[in-house]
Amino acid sequence: MLMIEIIFWVLSFIVILNLILYPAFLYILNRILNRENQKYIDNYYPFITILFSAYNEEKVIERRIKNLLSLDYPMDKIEIIAADDGSKDATCEIIKKYAFEYRNVRYQGSKERKGKVVRLNEAVKSAHGEILIFTDANTIYDREAVKLLVRPFIDPRVGACGGDLIYEEIEEALVSQHGEATYWRYETFIKEEESRFYSMVMGAGAIYAVRKELYVDVPPTFADDSYIPMHILKNGYIMVFVKDAKAYEKPAEKLFEEIKRRLRMVPQDVRGYLRLNCCFTFKTIKPALMLFCHKFLRWNLGIVIILWFLLLYKIKKSAIIYLILWSMSLTFIILSIISIIGLITEWRFFKLKIFTLPLYFLTAVFTASSGYIVGICGFSKSIWEKAETTR
């Protein structure tokens, strides 16, 4: 029984380390060391290429291109490459229309569907910008986002930069919106503190930038926004979080769509992590520890929580600490069940944050662990279907 209790408290420490201690440690250490976000000159305008892949995006593609053409950045220093991945709708025609009207807009693609990463690899080969900015077809940038995003590249140590992705408020997406928006604010806080401490470890595909000479072809079944930052960190460069460079996206309206997205993304991230041997091959220990505490433990959190519950049931002690843990666990599960009832019945009362956040948290950690298992088994997709409600 003693060994079971020891394992139980080790698992408890892992959960607390990942969710609380790691971000708290970064926050406190940054304040003790007085580490603030570095200030950069505001007249740095390198030639940039903005790239995105599109498949059947006729609903949003025109808005996206117009948004990029309205950025507060010299238009003679912007190249926009829209890579069509064999769309069956009017996406191709819309891109070609803007490519005809604007010299800095380029169409690229073919009728064959190859997948987002393949299209981005192809687009990079023909890009002329010294800085590559990656985005999505359904993303909207603040006018100053790109100008702010590229400023840190004046520092030769900076290999990549990531912006702040914000999810819009959509009434129809209450469950996924409350959960995803809150979870994303939490992740954004960690990214900002990691950047202050040393470097971000992964980016957001909607808004991140890379020096072109540091870009390497991403394997088709991997995620570009995790593979490229990890590759850059391995080579001794850092990735800076630029909080004021803001991008906006619509969240999935259905929780099931969010589950599918995570089950696709996590295996891609895990395969990149394993491919690059991220625990052992960094030039310094900092990024390896940060990836371990932030991502590796998060991917395994669902497995840890299941074992934690099983051991808590096995211990069966009447000590006050175990009674408190049982009460907290049962309350958390009950709130999640109530939220599921709200999903089924569509009663608005059951979609309050007190119910939806526990459900989203459990969904996030267990889909991440499921994705981790899929990833280490070598399975991930290069082609997938987008969540239509995010358009």
The oligomeric status of these chains comes to single chain
Poorly predicted regions are: none
Shape: globular
Give the rounded overall mean pLDDT: 85
Number of helical runs? 12
Which strands sit side by side, in order, in the main sheet? 3-2-1-4-7-6-8-5
Query: What series of H and E elements makes up the topology?
Result: HEHEHEHEEHEHEHEHHHHH
The span between the termini is: 53 Å
Number of strands: 8
Helix fraction bin = 40-55%
Largest sheet: 8 strands, mixed
Structural class, judged by helices and strands?
alpha/beta
Strand content is 5-15%
**Rg over C-alpha atoms, rounded to the nearest angstrom:** 22 Å
Structure commentary:
By secondary structure, this protein is of the alpha/beta class. It is built from twelve helices and eight strands. Strands 3-2-1-4-7-6-8-5 form an eight-stranded mixed sheet, with helices on both faces. Strand 1 (48-54), helix 2 and strand 2 form a beta-alpha-beta unit. The radius of gyration is 22 Å and the shape is globular. The mean pLDDT is 85.
Features:
391 residues; eight-stranded mixed sheet; 14% strand; 12 helices
Secondary-structure map with pairings?
Layout: H1 2-32, E1 48-54, H2 61-69, E2 78-85, H3 91-101, E3 105-110, H4 116-126, E4 131-134, E5 140-141, H5 145-150, E6 158-167, H6 174-197, E7 208-211, H7 224-234, E8 238-249, H8 255-275, H9 285-299, H10 301-315, H11 320-345, H12 353-376
Parallel strand pairs: 1-2, 1-4, 2-3, 6-8
Antiparallel strand pairs: 4-7, 5-8, 6-7
Helix pairs in contact: 1-6, 1-9, 1-10, 6-12, 8-12, 11-12
